[in-house]
Amino acid sequence: MTTAHPTGPRATPSSRAADSTRTGRPFRRPRPGRVRPWLAVPLLAVLVSGCGIRSTQVPTDFGPAPSRVPCALSGPDISTQSSHGVPVQVFLLCSAQLVTVDRSVRIADGTAEAARRILVAQALLDELAEAPSTPEEQAGYTTDVRGGMTVSGPHDGDPEDTLRLSTSPEDLTSTSLAQIVCTFSDSAAARDDGSVVLGGPAPAPLRSYECTPEVRAAPGDESPASTAVRGS
């Protein structure tokens, strides 16, 4: 006795082959173990999420990696610049801030203290006006101090630690003045308390300037703090 299939007669390979002959479409025998492409996509997502990696369908592009860290100089360049003469530091501009850079200046041995202060100040001015080296320029360093400026000592009636510039401090940009004041205050050109007495050509009045953290952080926005010097 033959038992009928609940949903009708079961299709056999021979009957499907016969149907393909009538319809004109070739009959393909299913391959065992073949995974449909649309079934592999959710399977891959499950495997990726199981590994703790969030899957994404949006391509990401964060751009090329930076080739040089801003305001960071290589060790060989620093040692080369300070290998001759007396090591000093000057303040250059980088990322809108004042950043110290190593330099060296030549001062003759046996120079008197008063003359030494002037020579150091002039050498520092020249270094500030010097164009940044190639490594410094690549790291983002610039200077706002222009060349040709000179410095002289006290005029009659000035305090003994006075520095008079050929350009009046009031005529300098805030960043240029900040570079000069902070560089002088960290050198032998400064007074014992770290302040700097500056003025233009005599008999221009004198002011005592200080290099503050606020000035170093934003020299373009903060002018160096100053007070009038009595008797000037």
Relevant terms:
232 residues, alpha+beta, five-stranded mixed β-sheet, two-stranded antiparallel sheet, 7 helices, 16% strand
Brief characterization of the structure:
The chain is of the alpha+beta class and 232 residues long. The protein has helices spanning 13-23, 37-50, 75-81, 113-129, 134-138, 174-185, 213-217; strands at 86-94, 97-105, 151-152, 162-165, 196-199, 206-210, 225-228. The model is unreliable at 37-56, 58-67 and 76-82 (pLDDT under 50).
Structure description:
The chain has 232 residues and is α+β, with helices and mostly antiparallel strands. 31% of the residues lie in helices and 16% in strands. The strands form two sheets. The chain has a five-stranded mixed sheet with strand order 3-4-5-6-7, covered by helices on one side. β5 (196-199) and β6 form a beta hairpin.
**Shape call:** globular
Number of strands: 7
Oligomeric state of this protein: single chain
The proportion of residues forming helix, as a percent range, comes to: 25-40%
Compute the CA-based radius of gyration: 39 Å
Largest sheet, strands/sense/barrel: 5 strands, mixed
Low-confidence spans: 37-56, 58-67, 76-82
